[in-house]
């Protein structure tokens, strides 16, 4: 399968989950070897997720509801006036059918305009600024601590040696893997082990460099699957722009946990930093 065939015949149905088993197998085989189509797939999925979110039922603003009601009142008043001036020599049966058709046409014209106003309001409301990010609690936990640590980081693991941090994390039933961001100019500042509201342990490892800061958060996944809206997927890493932050969501080899890397670095440079550290 070539790219043109995939994009024209498969892409939309692939995103919507409407491919047959055989078609899905062909599509997945193509995506496995085509970075361009993987990017198109991610873009299409992100757009459709945004449309689903923005098309949610919204309460019509009072000003728009007032316009619709005023239009309906005007139609009713015009209809009453028109029917009152009709000659009594016409029979009710002869008059009713054509008036009904005319009244429907006249009624739906202003109502359609008012409805269009509602539609325009919702669309403009949606694109007037960036759409609000769908709440993802683990991301919110990570960025909240990132902001705090960027101002002042107070480690509670006494050592800053990677081996000692790893042992401390493992002792608290957390993954012992530590990122080494030294090749891209970040210094390991230390680690913290805290507890979340549900009582589970969480580990924070903080890095600082000339280009900014990075926070690594380890916590239980609680069944979290990669949310929609990712910018890019590279192996086990899922990249997101979330509330102004660059985020990498990964699943460590030790099951049941997630690793969330948070930074203010532009996404392209953030991905390059992570790739450099893994190479």
Structure description:
The chain has 279 residues and is an alpha+beta fold. It folds into three domains: 3-54; 62-127, no CATH class; 137-278, 2-Layer Sandwich (Phosphorylase Kinase, domain 1). It is 51% helix and 18% strand. The chain has helices at 3-16, 21-32, 35-54, 62-84, 92-127, 137-151, 162-171, 267-278, and strands spanning 186-195, 201-209, 212-220, 232-234, 237-242, 245-250, 257-263. The chain has a seven-stranded antiparallel beta sheet, with helices on both faces. Strand 5 (237-242) and strand 6 (245-250) form a beta hairpin. Helix 1 crosses helix 2 (21-32), helix 1 (3-16) runs parallel beside helix 3 (35-54) and helix 4 (62-84) packs antiparallel against helix 5. The longest helix is centred in the middle third of the chain and has 36 residues, at 92-127. It starts with a helix and ends with a helix. Residues 86-109 and 111-132 have low confidence and may be disordered.
Number of helices: 8
Tell me the total number of β-strands: 7
Proportion of strand residues: 15-25%
| Quaternary | single chain
Poorly predicted runs of 5 or more residues: 86-109, 111-132
Task: Work out the radius of gyration.
Answer: 29 Å
N-to-C series of helices and strands: HHHHHHHEEEEEEEH
Task: Look at the helices and sheets and give the structural class.
Answer: alpha+beta
Question: Widest sheet: strand order?
Answer: 1-2-3-7-6-5-4
Largest sheet: 7 strands, antiparallel
Number of domains: 3
The shape is globular
| Estimated helix fraction | 40-55%
The CATH class name of the largest domain reads Alpha Beta
CATH level-4 homologous superfamily of the largest domain: MucB/RseB, C-terminal domain
């Amino acid at each position: 399968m070539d790219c043109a065939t995939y994009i024209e015949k498969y892409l939309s149905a692939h995103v919507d989950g409407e491919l047959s088993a055989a078609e899905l197998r062909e599509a997945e085989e193509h995506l496995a070897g085509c970075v361009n189509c993987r990017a198109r797939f991610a873009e299409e999925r992100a757009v459709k997720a945004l449309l689903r979110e923005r098309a949610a039922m919204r309460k019509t603003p009072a000003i728009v509801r007032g316009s619709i009601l005023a239009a309906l009142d005007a139609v009713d008043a015009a209809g009453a006036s028109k029917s009152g001036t009709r000659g009594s020599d016409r029979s009710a049966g002869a008059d009713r059918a054509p008036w009904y058709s005319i009244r429907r046409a006249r009624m739906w014209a202003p109502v359609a305009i008012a409805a269009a106003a509602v539609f325009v309001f919702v669309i403009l409301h949606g694109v007037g600024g960036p759409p609000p990010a769908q709440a993802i609690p683990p991301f919110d936990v990570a960025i909240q601590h990132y902001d705090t640590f960027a101002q002042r980081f107070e480690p509670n693991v006494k050592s800053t040696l990677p081996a000692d941090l790893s042992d401390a994390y493992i002792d608290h039933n957390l993954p012992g893997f530590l990122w080494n961001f030294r090749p891209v100019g970040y210094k390991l500042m230390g680690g913290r082990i805290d507890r979340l509201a549900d009582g589970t342990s969480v580990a924070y490892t903080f890095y600082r460099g000339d280009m900014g800061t990075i926070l690594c958060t380890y916590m239980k996944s609680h069944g979290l699957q990669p949310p929609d809206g990712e910018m890019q997927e590279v192996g086990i890493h899922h990249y997101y722009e979330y509330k102004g932050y660059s985020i990498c969501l990964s699943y460590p080899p030790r099951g049941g946990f997630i690793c969330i890397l948070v930074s203010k670095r532009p996404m392209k440079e953030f991905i390059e930093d992570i790739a450099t550290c893994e190479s």
